[in-house]
Write a structure and sequence with these properties.
The complex is a heterotrimer of chains A (101), B (394) and C (117).
Chain A: E1 29-33, H1 43-47, E2 53-56, E3 60-61, E4 67-68, E5 71-74, H2 84-88, E6 94-98
Antiparallel strand pairs in A: 1-6, 2-5, 3-4
Chain B: E1 2-6, H1 7-17, E2 22-25, H2 32-43, E3 50-53, H3 57-69, E4 74-78, H4 80-85, H5 87-95, E5 101-106, H6 120-124, E6 131-134, H7 138-152, E7 161-166, E8 174-178, H8 183-189, E9 205-206, H9 215-244, E10 251-254, E11 261-265, H10 270-282, E12 287-292, E13 294-296, H11 300-307, E14 312-317, H12 329-340, E15 346-351, H13 361-374, H14 376-381, E16 383-385
Parallel strand pairs in B: 2-3, 2-4, 4-5, 5-7, 6-7, 11-12, 11-14, 14-15, 15-16
Antiparallel strand pairs in B: 1-8, 6-13, 10-12
Helix pairs in contact in B: 1-2, 1-7, 3-5, 7-9, 10-13
Chain C: H1 42-53, E1 58-61, H2 65-70, E2 81-84, H3 90-106
Parallel strand pairs in C: 1-2
The chains are: A mainly beta (101), B alpha/beta (394), C mainly alpha (117).
Chain lengths: 101, 394, 117
């Protein structure tokens, strides 16, 4: 790519294109959410520094019969395995599992 | 419309006429009149603009970078210490490719602190990738500010522009000049153009970190923009001639056709040089005068054309590049430029007018006579410092 | 921008009433893939900042970890307008941006109502 094709002054005109860098390969441990224990308090979603915990409108029925209208899912393409979600979860629904390649 | 203004006010009138949006104001002698006059114009409704009173020149330039990034037409003015204070931001402004315009009333740099005119401040910012014009009359200051906006905002260039003129000698001296009577006419010369800017509907990231893998290419874009600017400026000089009736050239010459010797200088002392050349011609010297108007990009072709028939060229500089083999910054460029074109003339460099010391017609005559007396030695000495007590070359 | 599966409303600052966690907007204006250290809460802070300010935001960032890690050329994590100039002049640049919008709107050169609702 020559100097002619770059936007001038080093401007980046595509917002949010850092999604091309899949930082998921940084991690050693991966967080796994136990959907049965999760109370959908949204603390993990708030604290994630990368915004990889997604609030999806998938309903979930726990083993005890409680029905949630949404679920929290982790995007493993970008999760760096920092463990903040596991640390902050008030009901210990998230466990850090060693990444097996 | 014919008016009597000093160069500071001429800048203000031109800035008013092009309809700027944001002005950052910080005072420094000898440019304070520019921002003072602009404040007066905003207060009485002649100019619709936001004036931001900043706390330093560093902020002055930073503020107009932000405003220009948001799409506004901007302006600020400074001199010497102010220009030095904003030095890091000068490079950022050109690196971000923003069409800023700044007027510089040249003044000597400290230490010792000196408020009078020399070009050491302007020469110091030579490598900052700002297109630089050096004006010699208040009329030229007015015209060049308008041209500066035309050049800076050209989508093929998008580099910031400095318009420089002598501090005190020009900034505070009143001259008669023509200003355009109908502002709308000036505004039609500098139409509003679309460019990439900070817009919530089209988010862009400006000023990101660039590593060794892409920095060079981005800087090369600036090199090419400067190169294109050279051609575009010559076009604009011609256009200005057609629309305003006053035409300028990147290098102007007087009485050069049959000249064997010429004196090249820049800024306000060119007026004295013209007087001097007339008197020397009457005495029988075949001498001409050359004025450098465009400093960056350096006008290699025009310089070559005007120096073609000469045997000796005397370059009178008003700044010192300490420790250089030839201390006059313009002399260095002239020599390099003619060397590229394989022209070998005798070039004698004088440094004069430092710290506001006047350079009169008699000084030019003295410089010529000394150069002729020294002959070959003048070239070997490198730079001759004119008018220093205790320095004698004979 | 990644597609969002549910429906949501983008609220302006005046309409934003955050009484609890459930009221936080779901839109992520800060994309993952940035180079901040794993676990650096600077990322959390930026995410929350943008949830409150919304899309009609211009971020003026001083030189620092956030600036360098989130905009490593040619990638950027910002989904809003962003400008970085130098180390200590973020406030000055922000003054300039603000004045520019004010005067351009006054002159009718930009339409301030033509933003995200």
């Amino acid at each position: 790519m020559s100097w002619r094709e770059l936007p001038i002054g080093g401007m980046v005109v595509e917002p949010g294109n850092s999604i091309a860098r899949r930082t998921g390969d940084w991690r050693v441990f991966r967080p796994v959410i136990n959907q049965d224990v999760c109370t959908r308090c949204l603390i993990c979603w708030m604290y994630c520094p990368d915004g990889v915990i997604k609030l999806v409108d998938t309903p979930y029925r726990t083993s005890k019969g409680r029905v949630w209208s949404f679920t929290l899912e982790i995007d493993y393409d970008y999760c760096k395995g920092c463990g903040i979600c596991a640390e902050e979860c008030p009901v210990d629904a998230i466990s850090m599992v060693e990444e097996v390649k | 419309m014919r008016v009597v203004l000093n160069s500071n006010y001429a800048v203000a009138y031109a800035v008013r006429d092009v309809d700027v949006d944001v002005i950052a104001a910080y005072p420094i002698t000898p440019q304070t009149g520019v921002v003072g006059k602009l404040a007066e114009m905003i207060a009485n409704g002649e100019l619709e603009a936001e004036m931001i009173h900043v706390e330093s020149e560093h902020s002055a330039l930073s503020t107009i970078i932000g405003a220009s990034a948001a799409g506004a037409r901007v302006f600020t003015a400074t001199s010497s210490q102010g220009l030095e204070f904003m030095h890091e931001v000068l490079h950022i402004a050109s690196g971000m490719r923003l069409p800023l315009v700044m007027s510089v009333a040249t003044r000597a740099v400290s230490a010792p602190i000196n408020i009078w005119c020399d070009y050491s401040d302007l020469m110091n910012v030579r490598d900052s990738s700002w297109i630089t014009f050096i004006a010699s009359t208040a009329q030229e200051v007015y015209d060049t500010i308008i041209e500066a906006y035309m050049v800076a905002e050209d989508p093929r260039i998008l580099l910031p522009v400095i318009v420089a003129y002598d501090g005190f000698w020009m900034s505070h001296t009143y001259e008669p000049l023509h200003v355009v009577a109908d502002k709308r006419y000036v505004r039609s010369l500098v139409p509003r153009r679309d460019r990439v800017k900070l817009d919530p509907l089209k988010p862009v990231t400006m000023g990101s970190l660039v590593g060794p893998d892409w920095y060079y290419e981005i800087k090369y874009q600036q090199v090419e923009a400067m190169r294109e600017a050279y051609d575009i400026i010559r076009e604009r000089d011609r256009d200005m001639g057609k629309v305003l009736g006053r035409r300028y050239e990147p290098v102007e010459a007087y009485n050069i056709d049959d000249a064997e010797i010429a004196i090249l200088t820049y800024g306000g002392i060119y007026g004295s040089l013209l007087e001097s050349v007339d008197r020397l011609r009457a005495e029988g010297y075949k001498i001409g005068a050359i004025r450098l108007r465009l400093w960056r990009p350096f006008p290699v072709d025009e310089l070559y054309k005007v120096t073609m028939g000469l045997s000796t060229l005397i370059v009178v500089d008003r700044a010192i590049s300490y420790g250089a083999s030839i201390a006059g910054p313009v002399a260095i460029e002239v020599i390099a430029s003619l060397h590229r074109m394989r022209v070998d003339l005798d070039i004698v460099n004088y440094v004069a007018g430092i710290g506001g010391r006047p350079v009169a017609e008699s000084d030019f005559k003295g410089m010529l006579e000394l150069a002729l007396k020294l002959g070959r030695r003048a070239r070997e000495l490198g730079t001759l410092y004119w008018g220093v007590r205790g320095v004698n070359y004979e | 921008m990644e597609p969002y599966t549910g429906e949501y409303e983008v609220l302006t600052m005046s309409e934003l009433r955050i009484r609890g966690v459930r009221d936080l907007p779901r839109e992520e204006l800060f994309a993952p893939g940035h180079g901040l250290c794993a676990g650096c809460t600077a990322g959390t802070i930026v995410r929350h900042l943008l949830k409150v300010t919304g899309r009609n935001t211009v971020i003026v960032n001083a030189t620092g970890c956030v600036e360098v890690s989130t905009t490593m050329h040619p990638y950027t994590s910002w989904r809003v307008s962003w400008i970085h100039v130098a180390f200590e002049n973020a406030a000055a640049v922000a003054s300039g941006v603000e004045s520019a919008f004010k005067v351009l709107a006054r002159k009718g050169l930009i339409d301030m109502s033509n933003q995200y609702p």
